[in-house]
Design brief:
165 residues; 43% helix; single chain; alpha/beta
Length: 165
Amino acid sequence: MTPKTLLVVYHTMTGGTAQMAQAAAAGAGAEAGVRVRLLRAPEAQPEDVLGADGYVFATPENLAAMAGLMKDFFDRCYYAALDRINGRPYAALVCAGSDGQNAARQIDRIATGWRLRSIAPALIVCTHAQTPEAIARPKQIGADDLAQCRELGAALAAGMALGVF
């Protein structure tokens, strides 16, 4: 049986989103039959999207939106993947300073255009960073939140391995 590939694409500026993406990748990596590729958004190319069987998209919330480099990733890959990845599963992670809902909605709208299948609501971790100093400060995501990211990655990988998604 050919292993399935889970592509985890993320952007980070203060480290929070990287921790979340790495935790999801670690959870997924424990699943036999699933190969995990963890790529920063600027590195991810249309071929990476086309070569994957499932996805985790992870972004910080910037100005109540997904990060610009995540948007750039989607812009660069969108048309090359359109109608070629229909039905594949995905999950979204958002490292937010406030509520993260708009960033999650943006990812969901793009995934809807790609006709991807959401396996769970976006996992939003709120850091409550509201001052310029707190926003720019390196983030440390708590153990409970990282455990949720690992569980989401593990669930996605298990579903892929079992052919559920």
